[in-house]
Amino acid sequence: MPREHTSRTGLGPLAIGALHDATGSWTPAVAVLLALLVPHLFTGLASAHDRSIEPRP
Question: What pLDDT shows up at residue 1?
Answer without folding.
Answer: 52
